[in-house]
């Protein structure tokens, strides 16, 4: 049972999310609430650094660090001067949003590999870091959309790398049970948590636990909302990992299932709140509604 949560939950709820989210107390300080560090954004996709940083701050965490290319650091600070630049003490990492695996810099590859292999800090792995997930030894959550799932699976020995046809497509376009099966088998092979984004987001752990998140809205289908989700997931993860650190224990990968589902629930709810009775939203609108989504779960 991941983190004491029910073994199987057909759909993740506000009450489930409240059981994962941490409301600060008088005894807290910024480090006890958790530090999330991000390696996100690139010269090609500079905006993703801002979107993921904003998603992390708005989800609630003690500190956000951003450790990316100097040329875009100003964008992050312009939007969020609270952000601390450079790597350092962290309870969780977010890697890959706004990075393209095919064109990423040597520096990005080296640093992301090192983060995934050294130490035990858990990580959220998105977009341009997904192909590295199979090499990881730290507890991790991967956050692919349908088009990116093969980046996770091919290094694990699934699928075929050298043909144009994607052998996954028919399985993902099939019925819900088959989609769940694909996500669960990927989590088992990876030894990490898989969060497959979509209208219904599916989360599975290597131990066989899984859940579905349906809190969102089709208005979320807009560029950059996934980058906000990655930051939000990093913040929830940092909070849970910091609590484990304060308790003097290492976080178990099974605990990351409820963390991922909670981040997806918050993000979906934020999208729904931002879209109101039904109007277009931007990724930053979603980030800005995250505090309201948090309050909707915890009643604070
Ligand atoms: N402002 C910024 O900085 C932004 C930065 N961003 C960053 O851009 C990078 C590239 O990310 P990406 O998602 O845009 O493109 P990529 O990984 O090449 O995959 C796209 C291919 O997959 C397919 N596909 C199938 N299902 C799909 C689905 N559900 N959702 C989406 N695609 C789906 C689809 O194929 P099609 O259906 O068109 O045949 C399509 O050809 C990444 O680092 C990201 O963080 C973005 O967040 C935008 C805002
Ligand atoms: N039709 C939809 N209904 C509900 N949520 C959606 C829908 N389409 C996309 N989303 C959500 O929007 C986000 C899109 O993320 P992603 O595809 O990574 O976009 P980007 O790479 O542009 O940031 C995910 O959280 C996904 O679950």
TrEMBL record:
Q: What lineage is this protein's organism placed in?
A: Bacteria, Bacillati, Actinomycetota, Actinomycetes, Micrococcales
Subunit structure comment from the entry: Homotetramer.
Residues given in the record as AMP binding sites:
197-201, 226
Asked if the keyword NAD belongs to this entry, the reply reads yes
A Pfam family that the UniProt record links to this protein:
Carb_kinase
What's the stated role of this polypeptide? Catalyzes the dehydration of the S-form of NAD(P)HX at the expense of ADP, which is converted to AMP. Together with NAD(P)HX epimerase, which catalyzes the epimerization of the S- and R-forms, the enzyme allows the repair of both epimers of NAD(P)HX, a damaged form of NAD(P)H that is a result of enzymatic or heat-dependent hydration.
In the record, the note on similarity to other proteins reads: Belongs to the NnrD/CARKD family.
Q: Which domain of life is it from?
A: Bacteria
Taxonomic source organism: Microbacterium oryzae
Name the Gene Ontology molecular function terms of this record. ADP-dependent NAD(P)H-hydrate dehydratase activity; ATP binding; NAD(P)HX epimerase activity
Q: Which gene encodes it?
A: nnrD
Protein name (Swiss-Prot/TrEMBL): ADP-dependent (S)-NAD(P)H-hydrate dehydratase
- Biological process GO annotation list? metabolite repair; nicotinamide nucleotide metabolic process
Which cofactor is recorded for it? Answer: Mg(2+)
What reaction does this catalyse? (6S)-NADHX + ADP = AMP + phosphate + NADH + H(+); (6S)-NADPHX + ADP = AMP + phosphate + NADPH + H(+)
Q: Where is the YjeF C-terminal domain?
A: 13-297
The record's keywords, sorted A to Z, are: ATP-binding, Lyase, NAD, NADP, Nucleotide-binding
Residue sites binding (6S)-NADPHX per the record: 48, 98, 145, 227
Q: What class of enzyme is it?
A: lyase
InterPro entries given in the database record: CARKD (IPR000631), Ribokinase-like (IPR029056)
Record EC number? 4.2.1.136
